[in-house]
Amino acid sequence: MPRIHFGSWAENAVSWLQTHLSWLFDVINTVLTGMYDGVNAVLGAPDPLLMAGILAVVAWWLRGLLPAVLTFAGFALVDSFGLWEAAMATLSLVLVASLITLLVAVPLGIWAARSSKVSGVLRPALDVMQTMPAFVYLIPGVMFFSIGPIPGLIATVVFSMPPGVRMTELGIRQVDGELVEAATAFGTTPRDTLTRVQLPLALPTIMAGVNQVIMLALSMVVIAGMAGAGGLGEAVYAAVTKVDIGGGVESGLAVVVLAIYLDRMTGALNQRVSPLGRRAAAKAASAARGFAFLRYRPGTAVATVGVVVLALVAGGMNLARSGDDGQNVAAGANVGHGRGIKLGYFPWDEAVATTYLWQNILEDRGYKPDVKQLDPGPLYTALAQGQMDLQFDSWLPTTHKQYMDRYRDKLTDLGAWYGPTSLELSVPDYVKGVDSLEDLKGKSAQFGGKIVGIESSAGMMGTLNDKVLKEYGLDGEYKVVSSSTSSMLADLDRAIKKKEPIVTTLWSPHWAYGKHQLKKLKDPKGAWGKGEEIHAVGKKDFGKDFPEVTAWMKDFKLSEKDLASLEVEIQNGGKGKEKESARRWLDAHPGLADKLAPVRH
Amino acid sequence: MSSTREVYVSRLQAEHLYKVFGRRPEAAVQRLEGGADRDELRADGTTAAVIDASFEVEAGQIFVVMGLSGSGKSTLLRMLNGLLEPTAGRVLFDGEDLTALSPRDLRTVRSRKISMVFQHFALFPHRSVLENAAYGLEVQGVARAEREKRAAEALELAGLGGWETSWPDELSGGMQQRVGLARALATDADLLLMDESFSALDPLIRRDMQDQLLDLQTRLKKTIVFITHDLNEAMRLGDRIAVMRDGRIVQNGTAEDILVRPANDYVASFIQDVDRSRVLTAGSIMDRTGRASGADGAATVPAATPLADLFASFARSAAPLTVTDERGEPAGVVTRDLLFAALGEEPGVPAPRTGEAPETGEIAEAGEPAEAATPARADEAEVSARA
After folding, report:
1. For chain B, which ranges sit under pLDDT 70?
2. Which pTM was predicted?
3. What values do phi and psi take at B94, rounded to 5?
4. What CATH number is attached to the domain comprising B281?
5. Whole domain around residue B284: which residue ranges?
6. Measuring CA to CA, which residue among A489, A425, A424 is closest to residue A451?
7. Structural domains in chain A plus CATH codes
8. What is the DSSP string of B298-356?
9. N or C end of chain B: smaller count of CB under 10 Å?
10. Measured between beta carbons, which residues in chain B are less than 8 angstroms from residue A183?
């Protein structure tokens, strides 16, 4: 079987699109960003509890008093987790994505219902959309639209489209043929047959499709979070990559609150919008017994008035509050003059630590730093496209070689701030008699014959398997279990709590060395190779746009001890409080800020 | 009959209608015209649903198409208002060729001149009874107040006054079909197509609805094509009845024609279950040459009296009854022997028809023999299957 180079064709197609149709992507990007920002601004504007009240009134209108109370409680909980803005960003993303999806899906479904040919062509296309892993088009999405909510939005639209189309088609095809015939027999035009008979009767099924679309859209937000879509997805993703169990549970719960709310509301919407639904609701109401006030549901007009009143109160409060949005920058230190600077990081601990450290320092110097978490791929792409200004965690010359090679001309290397790094195997210090890689020989039984590794794609895993184990004659004795960094750390944590022996792959710098008492196994034969250095990398024109910061970066250095203590401080501070934790650490090291970012007079 | 044909303008005519489903239907029609048989076509994957159907329906008449399921009667009905396009043949209504109309003109005809009542009512579940009845008017573009007034009148006519605000799913089957009837009547269409409209109702309700339809018909004088699989219903309602089998019309005549002179064994086998005493009339069995002795002048009956109503009289006296025509003049007599002979007569063996395979009832050839076998109807040639 000859190799069919489908992948490279796709790659060529993507790069062709990128060069020739960039104007189109820019237009799409502008429109979608506008929609998203608009919705997000509206949802995010009111005070959290007022907004929760508005959502509760909607629930009251659609479902009754008890669901309204639960709605308010659920959203108040989200607010107390400190996830309100993230939740509203996610809600905006879901609403905009669902709206776009439905605008496309319903007409397509109608078309498919009327033509078997269209239906036949659509079916495999929908199957591909539904089953193709979202990552596959998320990365090209980043290339076309850069990081931010839009690639996530597009991925969400693609992923949630199929049920919308299918349910619309099904709903229309399900309408009793005799009814359609009756409409035709009375001289109804095909269009009127659609609007007067088929759509009203298909509406319950179509609404079930809408419900599916929204739920699928919500399920995509975590994945979209990896491409910088922000919101709860980013919160979940960040928590998971940092083994922050509490943060993960909280942000996960916030997703659940949103999901249940959206599910119940769209489910109940059917009763309000479709004539059949209204009939069913009226029947159920006349049959129900119990407390009348629990069953009371405000009419549409009353509910609208409620929402409007709450929205007006929210608007009034915002007006009253605005005006005290100043920044406290020491007069002589205002180098940035309010210039925005976009800092990107992927969730590696030293990246988080330095990014939030510099966020504090740059604010003190009068800049307006904007911090965003991304995966390495999207982040390098964004830097190369000038959508991001600076990131701190380029491991060179090996780990991030591919990105640097790819975007060499479009990036500025601002120099190393840490080095050398090292890769190693580590054991807890209660494991006696194992201090060097040589000591591992013959002790596999003690460690269950396994070395806990990280992602199999990581460079150090290859080095470990191909070189280190062979060099020390361990390759038959130990098996390297690949998992993920977070699982490895979780496993390490578990073993230490139970005082079990464990060997893990680890690297320096790493906060685990600050948190646990670990021994780096010595490598007398130098099998791991030479260490790397960690560089700060800026966009192409960084030196021109930010000359002062460029100068600071050149002199920026951090010792392993300082870095580890900063990382542990941030770990202890908890998720969502990184900036405050870094500030605390900075305050505990007086004079450091002036050393790192000297102000010339 | 021949005299009435000149009085009425012919309203609905079907001329050599064919409907073939499947690939290359036109070629199939040619083969059928060339004498091919339905089963041959089926072997090729094409289905001939209606084969060479021709008939006329006079204004104000109820024309019943009777046949078992699969006989093509519903397909035939749907060609009359263009829901199905005939593969060949024409449908003329008021002299206008419906098969030649543009889709837009055809829709206009459907909304104004033809309405339809369905087997399973086909009421719109998302509309109230009044909105359902007003549907046809809504399509015509009649203003709301006007159409609701007319729909309410139609409901009143169908015996459903006062139910306007109810919903279809709150009504019994019979009431739902009244809504269906009201919907069809509200548009004031001249032609009413009824597709097994009473078949889904239970027997008592069905009988009520039949009575109601006959009652309405005396006032409204619509032209009605009524499809049924029930011969008793056909006999009760139909001014004329066409019997269909395997896509062809095998006999077309009055109830009495069918009962007395079935065109073939197939039709004959149908009429065995019919209560002849309620279909046959004194006029149909009377001895035209005989005259009552005149001694007992009181014993006269109109020609239209069903035979069932003669028993009481013969129970009192064996004397022959004088039958009078529309003008009240004596037209013939019925004796007790004649009555018993008419009811006891084994139906179905139509006079001398030699060499005819009774099971197949092939009408491509059988058309002529059928006519030949019933010379009494020779003057009504338009009703024959091969007109």
Report:
1. 1-10, 290-298, 345-387
2. 0.67
3. 55, 35
4. 3.90.1280.20
5. 277-344
6. A425
7. 76-270 (1.10.3720.10), 340-420+532-596 (3.40.190.10), 422-520 (3.40.190.100)
8. T-EEETT-BGGGGHHHHHH--SPEEEE-TTS-EEEEE-HHHHHHHHHS-TT--SS-TT-
9. N
10. 135
Q: Is A192 on the interface with B (CB under 8 A)?
A: yes
- In 3D, which of B318, B316, B324 has the Cα closest to residue B291? B324
- The Cα A72–Cα A81 span in angstroms is 14
How many domains are there within chain B? Answer: 1
What's the pLDDT tens digit per position in A497-548?
Answer: 888 899 999 988 888 887 888 999 988 888 888 888 899 999 988 988 888 8
Each residue's pLDDT tens digit, B198-242: 888 888 888 888 988 998 888 888 899 999 998 888 888 888 999
Which amino acid, residue A527? Answer: A
Using the Cβ of A185 and the Cβ atoms of chain B, whether some distance falls under 8 Å is answered with: yes
Write the CB contacts of A321 (distance below 8 Å, at least 6 apart in sequence). Answer: none
**How far, rounded to the nearest angstrom, does the alpha carbon of residue B204 sit from its chain's CA centroid?**
20
Total beta-carbon pairs less than 8 A apart between chain A and chain B: 61
Structure confidence by residue, pLDDT tens digits, A400-450: 888 888 888 889 888 889 888 888 999 999 988 888 888 888 888 888 888
Q: Within a domain: residue B316?
A: yes
Three-state secondary structure of A369-384? EEEEECCHHHHHHHHH
Closest-CA residue of B relative to A181 is: B83
- ipTM, 2 dp: 0.75
CA distance B333 to chain A (A): 49
Residue whose token pair is 């036949």 = A120
Average pLDDT over residues A169-178: 91
Would you say residue B324 lies in a domain?
Answer: yes
